[in-house]
Amino acid sequence: MKTLNGKFGVKKIKLDMKKINIFIGIGIGLIIITAVWGILSGKIGRFVPDGKVKISQEKAEKKVMLIIDSGEELLSKAIETEFKEGMTAFNLLSDETEKLNLTLKFKTYDMGVFIEAIGDKENGEDGEYWLYYVNGEMPQLAADKQLLNPGDKVEFKFEKSPF
Length: 163
What we know:
Elements: H1 7-40, H2 50-61, E1 63-69, E2 77-82, H3 89-99, E3 104-109, E4 112-118, E5 121-122, E6 128-134, E7 153-160
Parallel strand pairs: 1-7
Antiparallel strand pairs: 1-2, 3-4, 4-5, 6-7
């Protein structure tokens, strides 16, 4: 059997070159697939220093968001403020309405505080009432009993009651 220029040797070299080309093609394909997957998943092509991410997370964790939605643009407000240990939804509302010079009417009952009016919107107008939500859900507690956590979003909305 001849190895360099014989009939069998040329086929063996051609076969080895085909194998090498196949492996190179597969390798390049895997590199391309990995790069595309990395870019689409956001792992490659985006450099964010570790310190900045931590600072942003810390800032978000030490704040709470209050939204007062009266159903009218002029009275609707979104406020981000510092979180305080022991803060309740009512404390947040009371503090921020005072800063905004908005009237806040409420009554205190055994079960807690009941919001009667914010600004010029009073409960019962057109069958609407002041309801509140924490992180998109209506708590089963009065606003003065609902403790908040850093990062919470509290919304007081003037709307028809689901009850």
